[in-house]
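Hi W.,

Here's what went into the run:
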Amino acid sequence: MRRLKVTLEYDGTHFAGFQKQAGTNLRTVQGVLGEALVKLTGEETVIIGAGRTDSGVHALGQVVHFETGSSIPVERFCKALSGKLPSDIAAIDAAEVDTSFHARRSALGKKYCYLVFNSRKPLALWRNHCYRFPFPLDMAAVKECAAILTGKHDFRAFSAAGSSVKSTVRHLFSLDAEQQGEWIRFTVIGDGFLYKMMRLIVGTLLKVGCGKLTTDQVKQILERGERGQGGFTAPPQGLYLVQVIY
Amino acid sequence: MRRLKVTLEYDGTHFAGFQKQAGTNLRTVQGVLGEALVKLTGEETVIIGAGRTDSGVHALGQVVHFETGSSIPVERFCKALSGKLPSDIAAIDAAEVDTSFHARRSALGKKYCYLVFNSRKPLALWRNHCYRFPFPLDMAAVKECAAILTGKHDFRAFSAAGSSVKSTVRHLFSLDAEQQGEWIRFTVIGDGFLYKMMRLIVGTLLKVGCGKLTTDQVKQILERGERGQGGFTAPPQGLYLVQVIY
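Here's what came out:
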């Protein structure tokens, strides 16, 4: 047996999230990948993912690990696995790793992007790959607020109920907002993310940008750790798990 | 009755092209738009499009015109129509035009983009919105060949059989190839395009870029007007009708 680290790209549109949901017929990344591995290697194996992306969330660089007894050389594994996967998910890298490697626990951080189409125009082409926000944004205010959220903070106020983590302190190494015409891209690198944290941060920045919330209010919400006081949860289709950092 | 000019954006993935195909149940842009107009105005109307995009080809700015007796103000027409359209097509602009305006005949030119993912990596996220070409490209050769195709030429060699146009002379005002990491974007502005011309041009440029065809050979193919001698027809999912110029 050897342990493989595989990097995945997927279009989250037709997945009910990453995690397999026992007792349901939901199409999940973990489930589809497990079926492809059975086809390829004949083995049922436990798949550990770096992060549990929600339904509709995309990945350019999700990472998983699993054990396999297969003798397929690692340099051919990626192509062989992609051949067994449906067209909306692909294995883009495979590497043999030490048994001490763990896709989630070994991760030092993650990079996410969130794509906003800031226009009143309806959207057809990218409807499943970004979030249309129709109100004009004050990008200076957005960036000022992003600077406040950057750093090591208790992000309790920016987490959804339903997760059972020990600590809600996370370190955001960077949080950038770039505007290009009608498009805004938020890029975040952090050591970890609470449940729906990235989408709550984006919802808060958008609310600040359109003047419904001030930077001072966000500061208070962060300090007081009160859930439900900040912005809305930005919808999943704008979110991309870009990279897991090891 | 008044004549409206409506600009459409659509994701071509689930359309069997623009044109309605009598006697079939194929889902076409013209068909879907016609049904939405019936819902909105109660009228069955003839829809004229600027260009007949093929199955799988996308549009950021397709233009159509039609007559309507509806009293919906033009500034509200766009939103009202989008409300009756499925999510993969949207009306992004509407304007009242003179009856001399004709979506196809009044067009001075069109702008197309073609998106190539130049990588050996499999592609999941953008599988329906670009073409993956795995071979390394010599961009200097691609640009040299693009310069040869730019200008006014008989593009017979770059047209698919099956169309019955009087002249195969077209003027390409510009043909650019830009590279950004693994992505290549071809942008073409021309006074008109023969059947599959843009996709044949892209297929030829890619063949030149990977050394399977020389610029001199392309020059000869263009001069001799021999069909089937140049590149392959690049697949539809990389092609976008960006703008119709009036």
